[in-house]
Each structure stands twice: as structure tokens, then as C-alpha cells.
Amino acid sequence: MNAPASSPAAAPGPRRRLSRRTARTVTVVASCLAVLAAAAVVGVRTLGQEPTVTLLANWTDRDARYFRETVIGPFERKYHVHVDYQGSSAESQVLSADVEAGTPPDVVVLTGPGELAAYAAQKKLEPLENLVRQGDFGESWATPLKGHVYWFPLKADLKSIVWYPGRLTEEQQRKKAALRPDQWCLGMGSGATSGWPGTDWIEDILLQQYGPQTYERWARGALPWRSKEVKDAWTTWRDMVGAGGPRDLVLRALRTEYQKASEPAAAHPPQCTLEHQASFVRTYPRWNDLRGSYEPSSRLIPRATARNAWEVSGDLVALLHDTPQARKLIRHLASAGAQRAWNAKESGFSVDATAQPATDSTAPWHRSLARTLLATDAVHCFDASDAMPPAVRDAFAQATIDFLADPHSLDGLLKNLDRLRTDENLTWLPSVCDPGS
């Protein structure tokens, strides 16, 4: 809101000193006026005279601050619309409860297109094709469902990469380290979503060993979990990270939050040297201190045959309550300016080619990853677990935790996932991979 204009100055005249009683009266009146003014603001918002749009996302702490400063602030100043933002690391649970109670947010940002597809099937989402320019985002990012587009990415990340300290310069050193389970920095913890770092591993191994077509069949629910291809991915992960192996190694992975997985890499001597993790982790203090560099995971995964195939993820925007101010926010979040704001902070990437920052405004590693995300000759496949129906996604994440502790449980875990896969009430995406050129 703009500050009220100042009143014209009164003509100068003799000053009178206020008595203590008069001063106290003035103070009380001023306090009352302040309270009434605050109440008026609340009343105006309550009555809807100051437009408000509610927004739910998973960004908290530093990321939430970036989001408010670089994306929400400019929108509020330009459109004079207040954004009531809620950030939660358990946003899936929050959204489910709000939808069930009949009080969903106007706009939501979720990482899972599979979850959004389920809401679209329940007719809880509004189509966006008239609000977002066609062609700005590929089909793996804004997947059409029954003729409509229900989401688009605000920011994206690359996942088929392995981070290593800048001092580990020789490629041969990295390949040797990749064969040693104790050299992998792994943390499976993530609160209500624990286990997803393990799903990333298995997804990427399957993609690199058997290629995008096999990956897509599996992510769409058409390839059984007990197939040779999927089982190979699990056993490869077992061998790489030592599932069921030394107790201290397994416990370290199970007890460590994913944000802290790289901390042993900074110990003296280092307790691990490689981390299979998405591009966002490079902005974390530990990898920043270690001058982290990255290697395509295909160079370190045994028996990898795919070429230029990349697993990706994104934070996807969807509309649940169609209001004029919500439509303005959707258009803003899809704009090149808002997309570029994330890029400039190096906290994510845009897959809109028109929204890239100046080449000298970001670090070399960031520019390199951005080029890979935009490369037209590469195949980009969306994170399979995020694309799966929520029930399958959650069971998959839990299965990676159980398997890491006891690899002998694999057959039972895959059997349970196959049982979930065949549920006729589930909504599967029609595609998860861009074809490349």
C-alpha cells in the first residue's frame, strides 16, 4: 500500500507546551487511532476490498525468503494484490487436508505431476491453457491431460548428476571412488517425505541402463516392478551404496537428513567424496565450500548405455480456485521475469528459453546445467516417483528405506509395488519424457 500523502504544513506560530494530562490524552487518542487503523486494514481484507490470493508451496526458510523477495514482492507492488503465502515441507498433507475441508488455496506449487493429475481427475484443478503461453514449456513439464494443461514449472532442477569436491580432479579417481560404497554421501531423511533420495537413485540407474523408453513405460505404470530392468536398477544401487552392508555405513545413510549428506565430505580426512543429488544441492554451504563440480551420472553408473538422457524435476504451479487475482498470479509466475528471478538467485532453473539470466550473472556450473536443461538434442525425463500416483510414490520411497536396511526384502517390496500399480482407480500420466531431437 502507498503511504498517505502528507497534509500541508500549518503556518508557523507560537508553541505551547502541553500539560502532562493533555499529553497523556493525546497519547491515548493516538494509540486508539493506531488500533482502529490496523482493524480497518484487517476489515478491508476481510471484506475483500483489498484483493488477496492464497498460495501454498514447499519453500521454507531461505528459499521462502528468496521467493518472497524475487517473485512475490514484484507481483504485489505491480498489481496491488496481497499474496497470503504458506510454506510447508509437508505441503502434500496440508493440501489434502485443505481440499477435504473445502478450503483449498487459490494457487499451489507442487513437485509431483502425479499428485496434480489425481486432483485434475477429481476436477479440483482449473485449466491453464488460456493463461500460459503455449510452447514455453515442453510436454514433460506441462503434460496435457484430456486436452487441457493443468500445471507448468516455475523452477526446474537436473537430477542425473554426481557432485564431487573440486580437489577430486582426475576422472579416474572419481570412477574408483564410485566403486566404493563408503565414498557415497547419502542421506535418506526428509521428514514426511523420507526416502526420496533413494528413489532418485533407482530412477536414474534405470534411465541410464535401459534408456528413456523403458523408463517411460515404468513411470507410466506399464512396466512391472518385478521386471528384470527394474530389479537390475535396485540391485545396482545396492552394490553401489552398500545396502545391507557395514552397519555404520547403512545407519549413517538412514539417520542423515538429505541436506546434511555432504557434511562428511568436508571432514579431515573426508568420509565420503561423491553425492548423487539434484542441481539444487550445489547452493548448500558444504558444496559451496568444497567448490563442488559435477559429473553426468551416466559416467559412474555401471552398465550405463543411455546417451544424453537426463532425469529432471520441477516445482509445478496449478490453479485450484479461479479468481481474477489468482489468474494474475498465474500469469506472473509463468512470465519470463518471474522465471528469471529464480535463475538469478542460482536456487533453480527455468526451462523457458526466454527467461535465462545474463550469461555473466551466474556461476559457470549454473550456466552449464542450464544449457543441459534446455538442450534440444537431449532427452529429459521427469522424476518418475513424482510422476507416479501418490500411493505408489509414497510406497516407493518407504521401500528404498526398507531395502537399504535389508536388501533380502526386495522381492516382497517389489510385489507390493506391483499390487499397487494395478489399482484401476489410479491416474497415470500419459508421458514423462521429452523426445529430444
Overall domain count: 2
CATH architecture of the largest domain: 3-Layer(aba) Sandwich
Radius of gyration: 25 Å
Secondary structure tally: strands:
11
Structural class: alpha/beta
- Percent range of helical residues: 40-55%
- List segments where confidence is low: pLDDT < 50 over at least 5 consecutive residues: 1-48
Order of helices and strands: HEHEHEHEEEEHHHHEHEEHHHEHHH
SS field, number of helical segments: 15
Distance between the termini: 49 Å
| Beta content | 5-15%
Top-tier CATH class of the largest domain: Alpha Beta
Shape: globular
Going by CATH, the homologous superfamily of the largest domain would be Periplasmic binding protein-like II
Q: Averaging pLDDT over every residue, what do you get? A: 87
The largest pleated sheet is described as: 6 strands, mixed
Which topology of the largest domain does CATH recognise?
D-Maltodextrin-Binding Protein, domain 2
